[in-house]
Every structure is written in C-alpha cells, then in structure tokens.
Amino acid sequence: MPTNEHTPRATGWKLHTPNALVGVRLALSVGVFVLLFRDGIAENETQLMLAAGLFIAAAITDALDGFLARRWNAITRFGRIMDPLADKILIIGSLVLLAGPTFDETAGFTGWMVIVIVTRELLVTSLRGMLESEGIDASANWSGKAKMILQSISIPLILLLLAFHGLNEQNRGLVIDGLAWLTTIVTALSVVPYITKAASATKGS
Q1: Domain count, the chain
Q2: pLDDT tens-digit profile of 169-198?
Q3: Taking a C-beta distance cutoff of 8 angstroms, is the pair 66, 83 a contact?
Q4: Which of 131, 148, 173, 205 has the fewest Cβ atoms within 10 Å of its own Cβ atom?
C-alpha cells in the first residue's frame, strides 16, 4: 500500500483511526454473521435488508481506512496485517453462511464455489508472503481490487434480491446465480497476476 511521501507521519488520533475502522469492520462482520446464521432469515425481509446494510457499512470502512491511511501517512504494521485479514473474515464468513443449509442454495453460492474462493485467498497469501520475503512488492493489484469490489457488491445485492419477494422468482434466481458464478470466476482468475509475478521472480533461481 503506497504512502503519501509528502505528508508527515501521522500521530495521535489520525494514526489510530484507520486501525479503529478495521475494528469496526470486524464488529460489523460479527453482526452480519449473527443475522445470516439465524433460522428463517432466507424468508425474513427485514433481517435480510439489515444484513445487507451491515455488510455495506463494513465494506465502506474497508475503502475508508485505506484512503485515510494513505492520505495521513498512517500505515502501520498492525494495519497491514489486520486490514486484509478483516476483509477475508467478512467475505469468506458471509459466503460460507450463504452457501450453508440456512439458505439451501437460494443465495446462489454452493460449497464448491466457497472452496474455490478460499483456495484463491490461501494461495495469494502464500505467494505474497514468498514475494515479500524476496523484497518484491506484492501489494494488492488491479485484479485483487476488482475481485474485492465485485464481492462487496454481489453479496449485499444478493441479500437484497432475496429480500424482495415481490420480484419474479425465476428471474430473481437467474440474477442471483449469475452474480454467484461471476464472483467465483473473477475471484479465481484474480490469482493469475500473482502466479505470473511469482513465476518471474523464481525463474532461474
């Protein structure tokens, strides 16, 4: 994550605000999980909309903490570790629950899709660790950012679509399934630039 080199190192509340937003995101994630784990939520419009709202709020903190950390030159070691971890907890936790028996596949995601997404996250984490140990910049690239944006849009959108029972059920199902497939495919493909960079770094070693 690049810093603003022309801005003095943040101190006081500015230094700690981005990390506090990470904590807020973790708390909001717990709220999303509690709602998604409740029996009958798949048919409860209010709870689905609340879960979508909490997820959107959590996603906003993700964008905001990174922006403030760069703007104020407030990037910390804690933030570099916990920010991506909080993202993974929010996304993977939500997907596991959406693919679980509570929604009975009405949310589009299935077990194998979650396995693909989790495998991608584990592989990228390993590759980034390897690259950074070699002194190579392995910060999030355009594919990783596109993947995160798509996940942050598709999950709450699916929840909102499930909440609107007045929509044509068949059309709603097609849109939900399309979002799940698109998210899974884009997430899987987003690993390619990391593999390419790792292959280039290890060539001839």
Answers
A1: 1
A2: 889 999 999 999 999 999 999 999 889 888
A3: yes
A4: 205
